[in-house]
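Morning F.,

Quick status update on the modeling queue. The single chain you submitted on Monday has been processed. Sequence for confirmation:
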Amino acid sequence: MKFTADAHERLDKALARWLPAHSRARLVKLIDAGEVLVNEKTAKPSLMLEVGWSVEVPVISEAAEHDLTPADIPLEIAYEDEYLLVVNKPRGLAVHPAATLKEPSMVNALLARNHELSGTGGSYRPGIVHRLDKDTTGLLVVAKTDSVHVALARQIAGKTAERRYMAVVAGRVEREKFTIEAGIGRSKRNRLLMAVDHNGKPAITHVKVLARVDAGTLVGCRLETGRTHQIRVHLSAVAHPVLGDRLYAPKEFQKTPLQLHSAYLSFVHPVTEKQITCTADTPPDFLASAIGKEQLDPF
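C-alpha cells below.
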C-alpha cells in the first residue's frame, strides 16, 4: 500500500491515522522491522514526514482465526456504486468477525455479495472503514477499493465526514445544545470498558435536544471524533446514559434495546467528488420512532 504524506507529522502517527484498523503498537513494530519505506528508505517511527513524501506499507496480515464464510444475510443498502456502499446496519449484527463471535457478521454478509472489498482494514475486516457497536443501528460506509478506503478514513479522521446519531437517554436534559469535550481511555476498573480520562484520546461530541419523550429525552449527537463507545461514555458521564446500554447505564435503564441509531452520514465521494448524504429511519423498537430523522438539522 502506498500513501502520500498530507501533513507534517510523525511517521507512526500518520500510519495510525491512515490505517485505523491496526494498533499503533503494531504499526511501530512494522516500522522498526524496516518494512515501512519513506521515499524508498527505511525510517524510524519518530521521523517527521513532509507533505508529499511517499510512504510504502506492506499488506498487514491478520490471524486466520476468524470465520470469513460468506453468509446470505439481507442488507439494507442506502447507497451503492462501483467504489463504495452505505449500509443501514440492523440491531444485533456485529460489523466484523471476532474470535468470540459465533454467529455471522456484516462482513460475512458483504462477502456473499458479488463485488470486491478493500483490504486496507485487515483480512477479517474487508471493506470496513469505521464500525458501529453490535446493538447500535444505522449507517456506516464500506469501501470496495483500497484507495477509496484510505480516502474515506482520512475524511473521518479529518472530521470532514459528518456522522449524526439519535439517542434516547435517561432523564430530562435541560440544556438545548451543548458540547462534551472529554478524553476517553480504557477504564482503570475494567479494561474491557472505556471511560472518561483526561489523559486519554481527545473526544468531542456535540449534543442537541430533539424532543421530550415518555422514556426520557431524545437527543441528536454529532461526532467530531470516533473513539470506542464515545457517545455512550460521554452521555453516561453527564448523568444521561443511553437507555438499553448494558455497559454504561445503571441497571434500571437497561431494560430496553439500546437506544442509539446512526441516522445521518455525509461525506465527499473520493472518486466523483460529489457530496454523498444518506439518512436512515430509526428501527421499530426505538422508543422515539415517531420523531423523524429530519430533526437532525446541522448543529
